[in-house]
Design brief:
187 residues; 47% helix
Length: 187
Amino acid sequence: MLGSRSVRSRLVALCAIGALLPIAAACSGGSGGSVGPGSGGSAPAGAASSSATAVATRWWSNSAARSGTTIDPKNPQAAAGHLHASKADYCAMLNQTVAAGKSILPGVTANDPALLTSTKAFVAEIEAVAPPTVAGAWKELGSAVIALVGSGGDPAMVNGVDAAAVRQAASTVAADAKRSCRVDLSS
């Protein structure tokens, strides 16, 4: 049953990401429901209320983009090219993510393109502003988050993820966020 253990290991690692980052909470998403556990909170400004009309917008701000701006689905990583490592932007993005709650785009299912677009934009931008001490951890974690959301929230469909490396990266990011930004990503 090694295959089963491998899938279970990936599931644990990927759902740990979901607990760490509200954006990745798609691992419990389903058709017609909100993304993530505890959904039902108020939507951030600019978030669509229906998956049929969902448009990916930022719930975060940084020096290249402001909260509420629409994300180009054809190039969600565009703003990241205008960013550089910045503790102020990094901590602000983490604080805004936690403040946005578990329901980033209410009514969006795990298969909604708006969720994947906002995930790609967020990951690219957080990686760009991450301090050097956590930049490597974000690269590992970011690619796993995108893979999970791209799979429609099905961890069994995510390949090429090193579960131990993802757990370590998530631990590194969470510890640094608490220490450097006074943000508890696990809450």
